[in-house]
């Protein structure tokens, strides 16, 4: 695994504190992850120091990547919101 990429997530934690959101995708098949470009894990930090007030990281097999596509995260959060409203 790429040490520099892993250091970037630790640096973000050191600078911004713990993530405000963490999404684990271990329940999704590897085939679907590859097909839909879904990371193994996502973290989002909230901070006024970040452009737009937040920064996201995604953990893939190759390490942590800053500013990934967040389509999966958005659909996951919206699905949770819809489920909770329909209870």
Structural class, by secondary structure, is alpha+beta
Query: Averaged pLDDT, please?
Result: 90
| Uncertain spans | none
Widest beta sheet: strand line-up = 1-2-3-4
- How would the global form be characterised? globular
**Rg result:** 14 Å
Terminal CA distance reads 42 Å
- H/E topology pattern: HEHEEEH
Question: Percent range for helical residues?
Answer: 40-55%
How many beta-strand runs?
Answer: 4
- Proportion of strand residues: 15-25%
Largest sheet: 4 strands, antiparallel
Contiguous helical run count: 3
Question: What do you see in this structure?
Answer:
The chain has 87 residues and is an alpha+beta fold. The chain has three helices and four strands, in the order H-E-H-E-E-E-H. It has helices spanning 3-16, 30-36, 71-85, and strands spanning 21-24, 41-46, 54-60, 63-66. It has a four-stranded antiparallel beta sheet with strand order 1-2-3-4, covered by helices on one side. A hairpin with a 7-residue loop joins strand 2 and strand 3. The longest helix is centred in the C-terminal third of the chain and has 15 residues, at 71-85. The termini are far apart.
